[in-house]
């Protein structure tokens, strides 16, 4: 394993920045479709270093942020039951539902537990046969294999008290929705490297061909991101729409075939609503018929819950790249990490949280 410092070398970063700024004949609009990349860009000041060469617009790459409000409310209703132990990763606990969050449920006595793996939840189910144990399965293709394995493991153990509340979404359909929108401004994409470690790069090729937009798969360290941007700017200046892999130490064309086989076994593709965006066809997963006994929505009868977003929260426009977080009237005022209106302000990968934490509070450079 190479040291991370190798990918944070300031001299190498300066060389890449100078190349990008020298090569760019105009301001190119690039979208990163990963909240981790967004935070790395803002934390390391890459958006500021590139000046007028590149405008970054932040896509719907934060899985917590795009989890629909009605799914949060379903989680809250389930977690409030006396016979339930509700398990989740920690970043979901402060995401606001219509009237409360999971921390509020726990404060009132609900058995809400933070776990570090979905397999922790299966162990809790085995240790508490008198309780119904629910794991909140949220995320993109990156976290889906582990969540799928929890269901497989529960079935092998013969657990009848373990359930998965599924809110998995897929990256390529979201990119398709953005590219096909009449308000689209994206000229090039930085692909999410961790998604591609699972799914490979091949599913991006049809997007490049159909929409004529270059896509470069990138990692998360400063040099990873700058190299991805360098390749994108070179392609854009040369008028080429190509798919490239700038993260070869972790990503290949085929991806993790074993993980894909598990996903194909446990899940089937379905339409999914995205918070602040709306329904995107064939953009998510649900449990396949073979595993419906583990479906929390079915077990607790909460699939009917539907709610409306706050009119004051503009996170949907942020997630679509139509608005910078600091352009939102509520940003830093009625919406802060302590009083969030939407998930983009509380998620560890949310664009609004990144702008607030790393002091991008003024007018954006490319407003």
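-> sequence recovered:
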């Amino acid at each position: 394993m190479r040291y991370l410092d190798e990918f944070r070398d300031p001299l190498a970063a300066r060389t890449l920045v100078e190349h990008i700024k020298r090569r760019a004949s105009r301001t190119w609009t690039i979208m990163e479709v990963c909240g981790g990349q967004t935070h790395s860009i803002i934390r390391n000041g890459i958006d500021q270093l590139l000046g007028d060469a590149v405008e970054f617009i932040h896509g719907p790459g934060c899985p917590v942020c795009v989890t629909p409000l009605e799914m949060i409310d379903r989680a809250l209703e389930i977690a409030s039951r006396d016979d339930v132990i509700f398990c989740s990763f920690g970043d979901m606990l402060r995401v606001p539902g219509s009237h409360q969050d999971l921390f509020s449920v726990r404060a009132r006595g609900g058995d809400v537990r933070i776990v570090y793996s979905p397999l922790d939840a299966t162990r809790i189910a085995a240790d508490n046969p008198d309780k119904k144990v629910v794991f909140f399965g949220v995320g993109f293709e990156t976290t889906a294999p582990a969540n799928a394995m929890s269901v497989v493991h529960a079935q092998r153990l013969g657990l009848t008290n373990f359930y998965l509340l599924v809110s998995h979404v897929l990256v390529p359909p979201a990119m398709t929705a953005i590219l096909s929108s009449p308000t689209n401004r994206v000229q090039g994409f930085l692909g999410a490297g961790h998604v591609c470690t699972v799914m490979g790069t091949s599913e991006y090729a049809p997007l490049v061909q159909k929409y004529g937009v270059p896509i470069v798969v990138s990692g998360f360290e400063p040099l990873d991101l700058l190299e991805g941007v360098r390749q994108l700017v070179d392609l854009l200046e040369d008028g080429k729409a190509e798919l490239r892999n700038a993260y070869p130490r972790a990503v290949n064309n085929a991806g993790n075939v074993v993980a894909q086989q598990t996903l194909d076994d446990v899940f089937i593709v379905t339409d999914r609503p995205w918070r602040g965006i709306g329904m995107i066809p064939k953009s998510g997963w649900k449990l396949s018929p073979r595993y419906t006994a583990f479906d929390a929505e079915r077990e607790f009868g909460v699939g009917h819950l539907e709610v409306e977003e706050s009119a004051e929260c503009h996170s949907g426009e942020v997630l679509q790249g139509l608005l910078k977080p600091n352009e939102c009237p509520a940003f830093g005022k009625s919406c802060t990490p302590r009083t969030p209106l939407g998930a983009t302000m509380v998620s560890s990968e949310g664009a609004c949280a990144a702008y607030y934490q790393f002091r991008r509070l003024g007018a954006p450079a490319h407003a």
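The longest strand covers residues 278-287.
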